[in-house]
Amino acid sequence: MLVIEPPVIHRLRALLDELEYDAVQRTLRPHYFVWPFPPLDTFKKLLLYLPERLRVTYEVLLLGQPVQRSRLEKLWGGDAVDDLLSLGLLVLRDRHEVQSDNYSIVSYLGRYFVVSVNPYYPTRRDPDAPVYIGPDSLTLAAALPASGRWQRCLDLCTGSGIQAIMLAASAQQVAAVEIHELAANAARFNAALNHVEDRVEVLQGSLYDPVPAGRYDLIVSNPPFLPVPVGVHHALSGHGGEDGLSILGPLLEGIPPRLSNGGEALIYAEGVGDGEGPFVRQRLQEMADVHHLDVHLLLVSRLTIKSTLILKAASLVQLQRPSSELAQWRDLYQRLGATHTYNYLLRLRRGEGVVVQFPAFDPHREERGIELQPGTVLKPR
Among 152, 205, 314, 350, which residue carries the largest CB count within 10 Å? Predict the structure, then answer.
């Protein structure tokens, strides 16, 4: 587990800044604002053109590759290597070699986040990636209000802490809640890494259980939202129960009593539905009627169940999961009566009980193919 020693963490921050760790990623990482991890083969080729010091840094801290300790000490200095070992970010493989302890450092808009190694990289040692960051994390971060001064903010299911840390630039106080011990610890580490530990308090627990009483000006969340068949193993960061609402449902219900009069909630999620939209819209309408909320449902993307299963099949192969699980996912979608899956952003404010749905996806996306990651496209047959 990562060790929270702010002075040492701040020295790591200084090293990353000196190396222009984020600036170089903005240039070399395809789809920087959407995908937190670069496609491995392409990125490795680009690294060959970098100076050795920066190339090895990315190999160790982003890709999770092992390296000779003496080589790293020559490039960083012995004190820097000792710092990362003392923080638990690096571990000794043997007397001569070091490697990240299943952690990567991902950058976004000048911030740094220690997260689990991409589960699709061969260097990963835990496919469940307990300290999660993904395209949905960056999509929500980009959707955060661009301006505003908030006294109290709440980030539920904080994961790496990315939303709480982004909000700390405009908020006096941010409470960030995470149930997984390793993720909660990493979020505290990341708050120190970004010099906002004085404004971000990470609380370990389930949803609202550890949350201080009172109302919040802004509530954000990127919760586990995937419908998962009973008996199929899935990472906690994405497991939303059979209908995908085991976390999202109580999260939504807890918003009205905790939202300040002029407050707003912003949630990124995925769900199943029909050709008209995700099924969750029915629950949202009931909430809007009862609690006098105005709800904006922005549909970011839509895929047919057939295309969703194609993506699922590719994921099972990459994660070395049994191919027989695909039939369980197909049967689940049939039981739910789903014809499509949606990614969406929810905005909730106090108002008159109006629910508005905005389709913001490209209806011709599937004709061009489904992007597994930048540069990897599948076309449904």
Answer: 152
Please tell me the predicted confidence (pLDDT) of residue 378: 58
- Please report how the helices 52-61 and 21-28 are oriented relative to each other, as an axis angle in degrees rounded to 10: 80
Question: Measured between alpha carbons, how far is 55 from 62 in angstroms, rounded to an integer?
Answer: 10
What is the pLDDT averaged over residues 229-237? 85
Assign 318 a pLDDT band (cuts: 50, 70, 90). Answer: confident
Q: Is 160 left (phi over 0), alpha (psi -120 to 50) or beta?
A: alpha
Residue 94: predicted pLDDT: 82
Q: What are the structural domain ranges in the chain?
A: 6-116, 135-378
d(CA 17, CA 62): 15
Q: Which residues pair with 38 in a beta bridge?
A: none
The pair of structure tokens assigned to 347 is 């905005």
Rounded to a whole number of angstroms, the distance between the first and last alpha carbons of the chain is 45
**How far, in Å, CA of 164 to CA of 154, rounded?**
8
Share of the chain above pLDDT 70, in %: 95
Tokens representing 218 are 């802004």
As a whole number of angstroms, the distance between CA 106 and CA 115 comes to 7
Q: For residue 352, what are its two tokens? A: 């008159």
Q: Whose CA is closest to 170, among 153, 189, 194, 193?
A: 153
Q: What's the farthest any 2 CA atoms get from each other in the chain?
A: 66
Residues in the chain: 381
How far apart are the C-alpha atoms of 117 and 36, rounded to whole Å?
11
Residue 263: strand pairing partners:
none
Which has the higher per-residue pLDDT, 11 or 371? 11
Q: How far apart, in whole angstroms, are the C-alpha atoms of residue 223 and residue 245?
A: 10
Residue 283 and residue 250: Cα distance in Å, rounded? 11
Alpha-carbon distance 175 to 156, whole Å?
Answer: 8
CATH class of 135-378: alpha beta
In this prediction the pTM is 0.92
